Amino acid sequence: MKYLVIAEKPSVSKSIAKVIGAYRQEDGYLEGGDCVVSWCLGHLAEYAAPEHYDERYENWRFEDLPILPVEWKLLVHNTKKPQFNVLRKLLRSKKFDYVVNACDAGREGEAIFRRVYALAGSKLPIKRLWISSMEDAAIQQGFENLRDGAAYDNLFAASECRAKADWLIGMNGTRAFTKKYGRKQTIGRVQTPTLAMLAERQAQIQNFVKEPYYKVELSGAGVVAVSEQMAQEQDADTMQATCDGQCAVVGSIERKRVEKKPPKLYDLTTLQREANRYYGLPASQTLQALQELYEEKLVTYPRTDSQFVTEDMRKTVESLVLALDGAAADVSCVIDNSKVTDHHAILPTMQGAKCDKEKLPETKRKVLSLVAWKLVQAIQPPFIYEDVLVTVCCQGRNFTAKYKEILQPGYTAKPVPFVEPEKDKDASLPNDLEQGMVLPVVRAEKKHGFTSPPKVYTEDTLLSAMETAGNKEFEKDTEKKGLGTPVTRAAILEKLVSSGYVQRKGKQMIPTEDGVAAIHNIPDYLKSASMTAEWENDLLRMERGEIKPYDFMQGIHGLIDKMLADLRQIPTVAAAPHHNKVSVGNCPVCGNPVHESKLSFCCADRSCKFALWKESRYLSNMRKTLDKKMAVDLLKKGRTHVKDFYSAKKDKTFAADLVMRVEEGRAQYSLEFPKTPMKMKT
User: Fold this and answer.
1) How many structural domains comprise the chain?
2) Residue 417, domain CATH
């Protein structure tokens, strides 16, 4: 029997082809004796923009809404059409008995394959390769245990419903609010409630009124104890005067034993959070590095929401720990079959455990080191200590001192790679301290402080907030909650940055003026974290066949109807004028002037999609921000020469031409490397 294999990327195809014996290189595929291996280029096909359904949608008009496609259209980007044509020919070929979907084992991988399969009009039976590692043995085992493609119909349905919901809310909401309020307002199913969380936190910080408080610190015989906070300075002055120079008595010594279990293994979100906390890495950069490590066979499948492994992996995990830590260990604490669904926790592979990390680029070196460290840390003994609370009495006033006595360092003895260990801030309990002990002469000192506002979100804390958003509105036994999924959260944050609604300042994520303004007029139900979290939970239930796609989509349609009905009751605001703004060039889409704003170079026509964002994912990956000169060149010539792009892979800068093309009203970038003229010999 001859079969066709379709993977998500060329690099993955090569790894698979090596295992199943497809060595002959052809145009767009690899061929062996009984198999052919080809590849997609990520999302080859995506849902078409509104204007592809009806020409009148090229112009944004409120009266044309809602846009509700009856038959959804898929389009292939021009740059990817050659590879799609290869796939279409292969998928229609009669020489194959079946096709293997070898795209990444998750929602997105399922959607990538199924869309290409549908567009090609293929009738080949589908089998599914479902693996969590790109190691040769894992690939071989996967092909020995291929599953029927129909077993993943529910997974595909959930993926398509998510994509359709995002399209419907984004296209209708963005057009409706933009036309109603006279300024571009991007609406997103997950993006909007996430932005709302950021704006709410920013308002809490700005509106916070700090209030003074006072304490009295008592010190003597090696003991330092403090009073409770007082709002009135006079009360603190009185306490200080009463106690200073007096004797004090140790009233009580209370001990509480605390045992902290080691942290769990990494799922994607937890790894992204800690990579941001320790190294300042954006979530998108961590995911990119992790994906590359996966394709290089150094880590297991990255897009997982599990923090455990299964029992059948016990020997594998034991071998990994031995290779990483040099000692055998009981790994039972990381094994739980009931908490692993599609994929287990992120682990290094044996190849990753033994590789020379120093040869890797910095970001991948740090991410791989974190994954390896977490495995070793997770199987360590618990951290055991005693919290000691000492009460000191002086002149009828009570003071407290807190100490921590470490009984067993446990997992804390494994320091975070590339991070200086924090100095122990906890004071040591004096050896001779006992209840009833008299402190002959104590010094009393007044301390002054202020209440603190809520902290600005970092990418770490924002990811955590997204993960737990809406928890209070769910029953305790609800399986999944939160905004987005581990796979999509990084992309949501990048979209907020690229759209100019959020600005990165170091690790901090701060809403811009445009971001705060954009959220101001949006009703609560579109900003609701609990509603969006409920949708995410419904999509997971759809994967299990508990909810039908039709019912889910009816809910989305109902939301859009409500949104438009509410907006019809609001008077339309005239578009903001662009007087006194200097043009940097003309819009390649509509010809109107392009003006510079704080975060972008955008078309004067607010209904036009075109904008050149100063911070974008494409440029940030090369540590570059778009400046005015670059924007002028791009608008005039379609390209600009840049001397200092950064390559993370090679860890050095390079020069190239940044080339702009416009697809569906939006700027798309690529790089070209001008040829160096050959020197003539004299």
Assistant:
1) 5
2) 2.70.20.10
